[in-house]
């Protein structure tokens, strides 16, 4: 039995398999010939594996950069990292997390079928992370057994449908009306960035329209400009960390500055692989998903990983990362002066979430929106994880925490409601969420997804 449950869990937490499965169902619904079903199913799987491979290269090369910065500036504190805190959670909450994941996916599909929140969340590893968070927070409140699994699964499934809907009007600006939604649990940070962009970006040109002198035309190549930008980061970090530390601890004897340059170039390679994977996903998944939208869950919209949006504004990716990281440093300093828990800027969340915040800020406010919106996102990635730590129960002592905005917001809300009103407060919160899901179908009945208004 454990082997079967483990197999199901491993399938559900793999976005590649989820995308392939939904593409397969969609193509069957469209009655495509067998060879097109096969190629259309394999395409999104390979595309996502390419995306994941590129992300792996990025994460691998961000690790030494983070260590050099921490060493160079003598920083110690809590590093937000979803993978790290999840690995700790699995040791004490493994069965609960797995069960919440399965129930949450089922509830997401039911909500998409029965309500106007027709967003199917396909980023399985983020669903897994959220299941871990919910099991930790609800467990700390006092939920156990079936009650923990049912309520955890409900909140996971509900947020999987609600979070893409909240900012879909911004997502449509980013994608120029492509039929996809944001399926990443830092979505609130992206929507805040887009909102800020709309306030501060009047008259600011898009990051993709930045004029480059003819002599610097090579910078229009995103891979090259990313490599050069990151080279500055790595070389500076190697200088402040010191040659001895980099040589002994990180580079395995390689010259520290050669190591820094190679790491920066490898980082750029990872980004290029991500772009290639994204193009493959979009080429096959969106046409196949039309079958689900027509036959299985009418008008369903796939909610996909944040990296899928990188190709829509590639210059904003770099600007967003840099601005978000600076925001994270400022947030860390503010926490230090205030005597709070020191949240060290995690390079992984600041790259992926900061880049996406830059893209969303750019969609509403151009270059100014990308920079300021991503900077605010960086502040959120510092302050919110600090506020989340006290409600994580037995996971709050692991010297790490969840790094993305949605995790922190949901964890803080559930934790504080449970603290003041115990289980009753969580029951009432579940009722409020249920009402939010049902009301649009009552007051504005339609077969169209909520907030998915495509402009002509």
UniProtKB/TrEMBL annotation:
Q: Which Pfam families match?
A: EIIC-GAT
Q: Does the keyword ATP-binding apply?
A: no
So which domain of life are we looking at? Bacteria
The residue range of the signal peptide is none
Q: How is the protein disposed in the membrane?
A: Multi-pass membrane protein
Q: State where it is primarily located.
A: membrane
Q: Tell me where the transmembrane regions lie.
A: 12-30, 42-62, 92-112, 119-142, 148-167, 218-237, 257-278, 325-348, 369-389, 426-443
Q: Identify the keywords attached in UniProt to this record, alphabetized.
A: Cell membrane, Membrane, Phosphotransferase system, Sugar transport, Transmembrane, Transmembrane helix, Transport
One cellular component term (GO) for this entry is: plasma membrane
GO aspect biological process, one term: phosphoenolpyruvate-dependent sugar phosphotransferase system
Q: List locations, semicolon-separated.
A: Cell membrane
- InterPro entries (UniProt xref): Ascorbate-PTS_EIIC, PTS_sugar-sp_permease
**UniProt similarity note:** Belongs to the UlaA family.
What this chain does, per the entry, is described as: The phosphoenolpyruvate-dependent sugar phosphotransferase system (sugar PTS), a major carbohydrate active transport system, catalyzes the phosphorylation of incoming sugar substrates concomitantly with their translocation across the cell membrane. The enzyme II UlaABC PTS system is involved in ascorbate transport.
Subunit (UniProt)? Homodimer.
Q: Which NCBIfam families would you find in this protein's record?
A: PRK09410.1-2, PRK09410.1-3, PRK09410.1-5, PRK12997.1-5
Q: What is this protein called?
A: Ascorbate-specific PTS system EIIC component
Protein source organism: Helcococcus ovis
